[in-house]
Amino acid sequence: MGDVQLLTYILGATVLGLAVLTAYLWRRANHAERRRKEILAQFAVLEGKVNGLQLETLESKLNPHLLRNILNSIQSHAYQTYFSLHKLSNVLDYLLYETRNRYVTPKEEIEFALNLIEINKIKVSPLFELKVKTKIDETDPLYTQRLLAPLISVDLIENAFKHADLQRADSFISIVFEWKNSAFSLTVSNKISSKPSMAQEKGGFGSETLAHRLRILYHDHFTLDRFVENDTYIAHLKIDLLEHHAKMLAAR
């Protein structure tokens, strides 16, 4: 009977020891998990601040550069000043008020871009072929949601006018805006000028800056392709705002 009691005591002590060890390990694991979540939260805050500073830096370079290009276009063609100033008024409203927001609606961005194109048109020859098309599904509910970064279309449009030969009758620029299935698409193509391009202004808002901005805002929910086909330069941007919207809702 003494052996049975001893065995029972040993088993009881073992079970108790295992229970104590399990409770200790669980507390350590729980503490480690809380600490991991705290570190991840701190990292997310720091990452957000860094990305915010990067965007502020990029956008602060963009607006003055864009405005300077617009004013130069208007000044060089005084006979169209009245029409251009009307378009400029719309552009300035967008630059001064809407770009303060982190996001604008696709509708607002497309309307701004169309005004910008009208201003740039005064630089081209009357024989120059400039095609602008919009393929918009206005029934899509996200079309009027603030999901699109302001001025995201500027780089592709400005580059086309910068690098095409605007005085040649056989030259062209084609710009197509598309909003379908909650995705924003912009395709810009232009015949490459045979003239050497003018040196770009130091500190301009270039291709790498656009790609960097897109990566910060949309991560892997966008594609940006640039390529040359024969003598035509083609740039295509597509942003899946449905995926981006879902990610924003999940982060709340």
UniProtKB/TrEMBL annotation:
Pfam families assigned: His_kinase
GO molecular function terms attached to this record: kinase activity
InterPro entries reported in the protein's UniProt record: Bact_2-comp_sensor_kinase (IPR050640), Sig_transdc_His_kin_internal (IPR010559)
Transmembrane intervals: 6-26
Chain ranges of the Signal transduction histidine kinase internal region domain: 54-124
Key words, A-Z: Kinase, Membrane, Transferase, Transmembrane, Transmembrane helix
Superkingdom of source: Bacteria
Protein name stated in the entry: Histidine kinase
Lineage of source species: Bacteria, Pseudomonadati, Bacteroidota, Cytophagia, Cytophagales
